[in-house]
From TrEMBL:
Keywords: ATP-binding, Nucleotide-binding, Transferase. GO terms for biological process: phosphoenolpyruvate-dependent sugar phosphotransferase system; regulation of DNA-templated transcription. Residues 492-596 form the PRD domain. The lineage of its organism: Bacteria, Bacillati, Bacillota, Clostridia, Peptostreptococcales. It comes from Maledivibacter halophilus. This is Sigma 54 modulation protein. The keyword Zinc does not apply.
Length: 992
């Protein structure tokens, strides 16, 4: 028994290990015996076995968001494959600190962690790893690219969309490399690239380049010549700027994609056969510039985001990588000063990554010239080397200060031409900065004046930089564990200064209630420097003085009172500029208390399809700003990914006054609520969006006294504003019915997923909440029709919404896919508002499939040696496609469904499936795996890929009932022949 016990524990899911009770059932022995044997073997209990990986997961989540709530932390941990309560999270969070301290001594656990890391690490077939953002903002797009290249038998033709410079060509190259590494094409297969714009003015020559020609095809065609299509046989053909391809060329490509055949120019009888996967890229709207016949033959579309929609931390990595490439070209280390780095991070870059690289190259070229002339050891990029438009990025520092401080630390960076790590230089001590503040201002004035900047901009830049430096100085004093003692400080600044500072500190403490201790050290050193400059006859202007006197009037009056004391104590004369500097120190100490709100109201437009970018662009151009930001969701993009993108952009545009979200359909209205809960940023959402409304929103939001609620209320007018955080009391009039109206939600996976569909519908129909019920049921319920009849007896069922149509006559069915796309929402609302509800009439003259009708040896893979769920999905889909059970788009629909929610049935079993519209005839592809694999965090050994229709309800009920008995699962996975699996099902009572 001990041997079997060890085997079970070695194979268990370490996120949800077996309890002693579960082990006793699997071993068919008493629980007490299991506990004694486990203790004898020195094996910890299930909680301890799970502890290491649980604490590691919690630590990772906290590292990304240290302020996450206990509720959200529990939800995120369970999303990663655990099944634990908030109480367990609370206890584990307390244990985390001690665990991290003892981690180095836990040799066995370290070994397990290494094994776990290797197992969970992605395949080495990862040619996308060098793309910055591959595990960040670009992850969903790279997943689509991988899926396209792995789709059997030769990959999917793909259209890559995006503005100029977003990296379309780089993605295409990575897809080609990934295809080679994945053995989809041969290692020596060429990557053929053709820019359609090169020959756009000469269509005949363009066609000749693509398809080749025979001798005499046209004037100058003296020999036969193969085209790029032939050269790409067995590989990939990348067509850049495909919108420049003439209609005739698109028609020929359509024929090539459809038939795999083409003719050279001048050929009339011979047809040549090739196998080519086409990657096409364009900056234009494909629906308006490509023929429908051609567009429909490209099943995969990937839309890359522009640079300003990506996180600043990724932009920093892109900047460093481009500088590293220039360092390699020049064979010299490059030091980028902090101001220059900030400008690169923040300036408007309409040409995206391409323009960013170009601007970096210009800066490096100027730096290299100085490097050669001055014979310096390394190249230096300062603000002087930057193009003029790039320098304007410094004007945006104030609105991005916190993140910029975090990204640029406190120093300059040296980047080497080899693989040496970046070197951080310029580490300031606690008391160094105040001695340099005046010199810093002088140098910055001279520097900025030499760049022909006007006085207002100079004051703005320097003022913000001084505030930033003061904040860092205060933070250094706070973080310093052993601050300098008074007797040591006297040696630095003198007893007179110390005595004077002690008197003015009391004034600050009494009148502002601030922590005088923090202010003591910085004022003492600052004042010492001030006295030294006055003795040398040097005076300095405070660039923030006008702002200080106007905005910080209370602190400035106190600072003037403090300067009077200083003048009397030290026998010196201090100007208002010096009082302004003292005010800034005081302001740093009182800032947190007041939590002052500055900036403008942000505006973000979110749409399904290609709508938002156009409206934002029109509003920005008309008003001469770049204020409105946009997010466009592809129709197949999961809500989770769209929400993460929305959170990133809201964080980026928030200036302290909140963000107005303009969305084009009701299903997006709750994004505002979720974003506010996750980030703390105030939002308002409006679900009626047009260009005029966007223009008015932007116009109002950029006004100095803009207020989020006032703007939203004004724009709202008669439009209903729906949000759970600030929900209007306006409800659609509740009509009186004899029976309350109801919507039934169903999902092929079970009632849990039907509950998630219910939650989605609650968001898009919240204005009807007083007059409608939403009732979730599982398709797996064997008596589903009786359940519907029971619901119908008490309610008016206006619609059924879900992933499969149960085919109840006279009850309209709306697919979840239509709800996600938006067109189903309006249809659902029309049904809710229509009082004419017909009685239910269930179809009876239909053949009902049973489970044994749907499984076949030709649809079965036994002991499949797979590592990842995508491999399983591709192979099982391939069987269904080859045997003509499903249409070509089936696999893509399966992958899309996987993104929506898990498709787990029970422990060890998963039932991936697609929209029934892709099913030609019902069938189930079976996959018994050689070893367990992780499927969204859970261990899976048996896969049933469902290609079902509404005639398969009875079969679904049988599947559900069969796997409720754990013994049936154990019997299935012991079988090595299809006949064995079928016999297990035959002996099951529901299979007869």
């Amino acid at each position: 028994m001990e041997k079997k016990l060890i085997e079970l524990i070695n194979k268990e899911n370490n996120r949800n290990p077996y309890t002693d009770s579960e082990l006793s059932k699997l071993l068919n022995v008493r629980r007490e015996l299991v506990t004694l044997s486990r203790q004898k073997l020195g094996i910890p209990d299930s909680r301890e076995r799970r502890k290491r990986v649980l604490l590691k997961t919690i630590d990772e989540i906290l590292h990304m968001d240290k302020n996450i709530s206990e509720r959200e932390l529990t939800k995120e941990v369970n999303k990663r494959g655990f099944d634990i309560s908030r109480h367990t999270i609370r206890q584990s969070r307390k244990e985390l600190k001690d665990y991290k301290k003892n981690q180095l001594n836990m040799v066995n656990n370290d070994l397990e962690e290494t094994i776990e890391k290797i197992r969970l690490e992605p395949s080495n077939k990862f040619s996308f790893k060098n793309i910055i953002g591959a595990q960040g903002s670009l992850k969903p797009f790279i997943q689509l690219a991988k899926a396209a290249m792995l789709y059997p038998p030769h990959g999917l033709h793909t259209l890559i969309l995006g503005a100029t410079g977003v990296g379309k060509s780089e993605l295409a190259i990575a897809m080609y490399e990934f295809s080679k590494l994945s053995n989809m094409i041969k290692d020596n297969a060429p990557f053929i690239v053709f820019n359609c714009a090169d020959y756009a003015d000469n269509p005949q020559l363009l066609m000749a380049q693509l398809f080749g020609y025979v001798k005499g095809a046209f004037t100058g065609a003296d020999i036969d010549k193969e085209g790029l299509v032939e050269k790409a046989d067995g590989s990939l053909l990348f067509l850049d700027e495909v919108h420049r391809l003439p209609p005739k060329g698109q028609e020929l490509l359509f024929y090539l994609i459809d038939k795999g055949k083409f003719r050279r120019l001048g050929e009339t009888e011979i047809e040549r056969k090739v196998q080519v996967t086409i990657l096409a890229a364009t900056t234009e709207n494909p629906d308006s510039i490509l023929l429908n016949t051609f567009r429909r033959r490209i099943p995969m579309t990937i839309q890359l985001p522009p640079l300003d929609k990506r996180p600043l931390k990724e932009r920093l990595e892109i900047i460093k990588e481009f500088i590293r490439k220039e360092a390699s070209r020049t064979h010299s280390a490059i030091k980028i000063c902090k101001d220059a780095l900030k400008a690169f991070l923040l300036y408007d870059c309409p040409g995206n990554i391409g323009q960013l690289r170009s601007d970096i190259q210009v800066s490096c070229a100027r730096s290299f010239l100085n490097h050669v002339v001055n014979k310096s050891k390394i190249m230096r990029i300062t603000i002087n080397e930057l193009p003029s438009d790039t320098k304007k990025g410094l004007l945006k520092i104030k609105n991005n200060r916190i993140e910029i401080q975090r990204l640029t630390i406190d120093s300059n960076i040296i980047i080497h031409p080899d693989n040496k790590p970046d070197k951080i230089v310029g580490n300031e001590g606690i008391y160094i900065f105040p001695n340099e503040i005046y010199k810093y201002i002088e140098d910055r004035y001279n520097d900025l004046q030499n760049q022909d900047m006007n006085q207002e901009i100079i004051n703005y830049i320097i003022g913000n930089e001084i505030e930033e430096k003061l904040e860092k100085l205060i933070k250094k004093v706070e973080d310093n564990i052993r601050p300098i003692e008074k007797k040591d400080l006297i040696k630095i600044v003198g007893i007179e200064v110390i005595n004077a500072v002690e008197k003015i500190i009391k004034i600050a403490k009494w009148k502002l209630g601030i922590d005088a201790g923090k202010l003591y050290y910085v004022l003492a050193v600052h004042l010492s420097t001030t006295i030294e400059r006055i003795s040398k006859g040097k005076m300095i202007r405070n660039p923030q003085l006008s702002k200080i006197k106007k905005e910080y009037e209370h602190e400035f009056k106190i600072a003037l009172e403090m300067t009077e004391v200083l003048e009397e104590e030290l026998d010196i004369q201090l100007s208002e500029d010096e009082a302004g500097f003292i005010t800034m120190y005081l302001r740093m100490m009182t800032k947190e208390k007041e939590a002052e709100i500055e900036g403008r109201v942000g505006v973000v437009i979110i749409s399904h399809g290609k709508v938002a970018n156009g409206m934002a662009d029109v509003a920005n151009r008309l008003l001469g700003v770049a204020h409105a930001k946009s997010i466009e969701m592809s129709l197949d993009e999961s809500p989770e990914i769209a929400l993460e993108r929305s959170i990133d952009i809201v964080k980026n545009v928030d200036e302290g006054k909140g963000v107005l979200l303009l969305v084009d359909m009701g299903s997006l209205i709750t994004f505002g609520e979720i974003i506010t809960q996750k980030t703390g940023i105030r939002t308002r959402s409006l679900n009626r969006t047009d260009t005029v409304m966007v223009i008015e929103a932007v116009r109002r939001s950029i006004l100095p006294d803009a207020d989020l609620d006032e703007i939203a209320d004004t724009l709202e007018e008669k439009t209903k504003y729906i949000s759970r955080l600030t929900n209007s009391n306006k409800k659609i009039e509740n009509r009186s019915f004899k029976k309350r109206k109801a919507i039934i939600t169903v999902c092929i996976t079970g009632q849990g997923s039907a509950q998630k569909i219910k939650e989605l519908l609650e968001n898009v129909t919240s204005e009807y909440e007083d007059s409608i019920r939403i009732i979730p049921i599982g398709v797996l319920e064997s008596n589903m029709k009786n359940i519907v009849l029971n619901i119908q007896s008490k309610n008016h069922v206006v619609a059924i919404v879900g992933t499969v149509n149960p085919n109840m006559n006279n009850i309209p069915f709306i697919s979840l896919e239509d709800i996600a796309k938006g067109n189903g929402v309006n249809r659902l609302k029309n049904l809710i508002e229509n009082d004419d509800i017909k009685t239910i009439d269930i179809k009876k003259d239909r053949y009902e499939y049973r489970l044994l009708d749907l499984i076949h040896s030709s649809l079965t893979i036994l002991n499949g040696n797979f590592k990842y769920k995508e491999e399983v999905i591709f192979e099982l889909s391939k069987l269904l496609i080859e045997n003509k059970y499903v249409k070509e788009g089936f696999i893509y629909s399966v992958l899309t469904r996987e993104e929506m929610a898990p498709t787990f049935l029970t422990e060890g079993v998963v039932i991936p499936h697609a929209n029934p519209s892709y099913v030609l005839k019902p069938g189930i592809a079976l996959g018994k795996l050689k070893r367990e694999i992780y499927w969204d965090g859970k261990r899976i050994k048996f896969v049933m890929m469902l290609a079902l229709t509404s005639q398969c309800m009875k079969a679904m009920g049988e599947i559900y009932d069969f796997f409720q008995d754990r013994n049936n699962f154990m019997n299935i996975i012991e079988q090595n022949r299809f006949e064995g699996i079928r016999n297990v099902l035959l002996t099951y009572k529901g299979g007869n």
